[in-house]
Amino acid sequence: MMESLKESEISMADVTDIVYKIIVVGDAEVGKTALARRFTMDQFDDSYIFTLGVDFFAKEIKVKRTLIKLVIYDTAGQEKFDFIRGLYFEGAAGAIIAYDITNRQSFERVGHWIMQVHQHCEGIPIELVATKLDLEDQRTVTLKEGQKRAKQDKMTFIESSSKESIHVTDVFQKLAERIWEKYEKLSSALSDE
Ligand SMILES: Nc1nc2c(ncn2[C@@H]2O[C@H](COP(=O)(O)OP(=O)(O)O)[C@@H](O)[C@H]2O)c(=O)[nH]1
Ligand SMILES: [Mg+2]
Predict the structure, then answer these.
(1) Is any ligand 1 atom within 6 A of the Cβ of residue 34?
(2) Would the CA dihedral through 82, 30, 18, 15 be positive or negative?
(3) Atom of ligand 1 nearest to the CA of 51
């Protein structure tokens, strides 16, 4: 009896069709495309692939035994793409703000990106992601500074390397779990009414 109940739970979980749109923002060359490519295709390229407009990546993950499809929207950080920004942000469930630990300026621009996210998608979970953790010898932003910045704006925080595959899955798993918790709270609040 218990066995068959478990089985049906699993198959129910597998047919669930939940899609979360995740946006990745941050200055040019911090490693946004590399992060999305490592996570979805397990590939890394040392050369800089200029992202023109918007690119899409997708991968399924499990949150609390539920299969969730993450659709990752990757965009060029350049201000000249301002005109597509509205569409880009529309319907996002969560955001990643990336900066490069070897590029102090990209860290100082985090506030700008928080404002952009707040302006277009108020209240969505944001994760601050420090990239290029493998370049420890060239680091100009400390772990503490990153943690402090994240705390200041209630963001989760993680340091990662797409090159060396460090904490890349955690980046997306952690964010998806936060989104899940937010929606679960929302739906249980609604059913309480
Ligand atoms: N060492 C190192 N280089 C990286 C890492 N991630 C990206 N890069 C490099 O940084 C450059 C910019 O990366 P890209 O993903 O194109 O940046 P984007 O403009 O933010 O999309 C490329 O030359 C990448 O190879 C990383 O984790 N470690
Ligand atoms: Mg890119």
Answers:
(1) yes
(2) positive
(3) 21
Which domain, by its residues, includes 52?
14-192
d(CA 98, CA 131): 7
pLDDT by residue (tens digit) across 87-119?
788 899 999 999 999 999 999 999 999 999 999
Residue 129: closest CA among 32, 1, 51: 32
Residue nearest to atom 3 of ligand 1 (CA): 132
CB distance 176 to 96 below 8 Å: no
- Domain count for the chain, please give it: 1
Q: What is the pLDDT of residues 40-56, one digit of tens each?
A: 999 998 877 667 677 88
CATH code: domain of residue 177: 3.40.50.300
Copy the structure tokens of residue 167: 């904490």
> Is the CB of 50 inside a 6 Å radius of any atom of ligand 1?
no
Give the 3-state secondary structure of residue 88. Answer: helix
